[in-house]
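Chain X:
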Amino acid sequence: MPKMKSRRRALKSYKVTASGKIKRRKAFRSHILTSKTTKRKRHLRKATLVSETEAYKVKRFLLV
């Protein structure tokens, strides 16, 4: 049987809140930031919740 792949990246990418919801960072804030407005970058700074449809998959992936 092959080795199991670890899920360390997922554990670093998502956080589970006290109520069981899953938080994630927003995309489009890693490079080419000079072409994006300050307002856009500011809004991308905040974390957001994973949608309910995706939360089921992420919870299974995180083994929560």
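Chain Y:
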Amino acid sequence: MTSHTTSHATPRLSVRLAAVSTLGPDDVSRWRDLAEHAAEPNVFYGPDFLVPTAAHFDRDRTLRLVIVESDGTWLALMPYELVAANRRWPHRHASNDGPILNQFTSLGVPLLRQDDPRRAARGLVRAFRRFSRELGGSIEMAFVSGDGPGGAALQQAFADDGSTLHVWGGDARAAVRFAEVEDPGALGYLPRSRAKAVRRRARRLTEAIGVPAELDSLTLDVVDDPAEFLRFELETWKADPARDGVGFSRLREGPEWFTDVFQAHAAAGRATLLALRPAGETLYMAAFLRSGRTLFAWYDEYAEAWAQHAPGVLGRLLTVKQLAAEGGADLLDSCMHPSLYPDQNELYPSRLRTVSFTAALGRWPGQLLLREIVALGHGRRALTGRVREARADRRARAERPGGRGVRQGAVSGS
């Protein structure tokens, strides 16, 4: 474990690096307190998520934390792994998008204490600089919120520090800001044609099961046992190796991990399993985790046997309706990549903007190196565009009457 105490902050801030699997009960307790009082909730960076993740999948202790604390109180935290050189940084470096974090987390905003997120963010950026060598000279940060208080404080701290950032990604993924939706059950936020099609599917599905019903009358059951979710998974494509299924049953220690994470959150009333079960036939299940007043759509799955009736679409719409009715949350993050699931984005009325970037940590030559990488990237894209335009122009000239292509065709046909 590496640590360092700054001498110019009041009160003093101390910063350190630590492997998740090495933290004792006192540190985990401080970590949990930070997660519960974060300026912007991120369930994936709390101890009830990352401690079991490290226990099941991090035998080499590669999952580590940058920690900022003051007088025994944790102010900021960022998990990372060291990843190989890539086109964004030519050396091994820190990333919140390494093998473990990429597979199991969906939001990259750090935990910053809500009392003073700007101070916490400044402390985190200073910690990055302090451990520049250990972090490989840069840190890659994927899926940081672009419009939330935590993401805003972090980006402002980098700007105040004069850090060079290479922004290489950005998305607007599906979400629900419950205050913006008057009546989710009315599906008023859906295009009229989509809403009509969904209601028709609901009728046909329930007719096929033998209990005809309208979408408005369908409800979701609350499920207490995570083993039911795991059993249902075996009936879905996610358990099928021939289709490269991504289910827990295909992941070593996957079922145990899912159970541990769910139960850790459920013990504090922060986990929910919902199931669509008309006439006792399970068609869809979804698992949600909560942090603060934000709900995170963790995993869901639908019955393969009824796929033609789109039970997944029906289930997702019904979860929006039911979670809105229950109250207690301001935001539902779908945790879906918008480019991978474009048709599913339409099922949610709001958008959550995320941004991905690389930050150079050293004063010099790291800042200069990242600027050169960005410039080379711009140049490469410009050159690619010019080459593409030139090829298109050559094709257009060849296809004109009397052009090279026409002449060659005439000669070969003579």
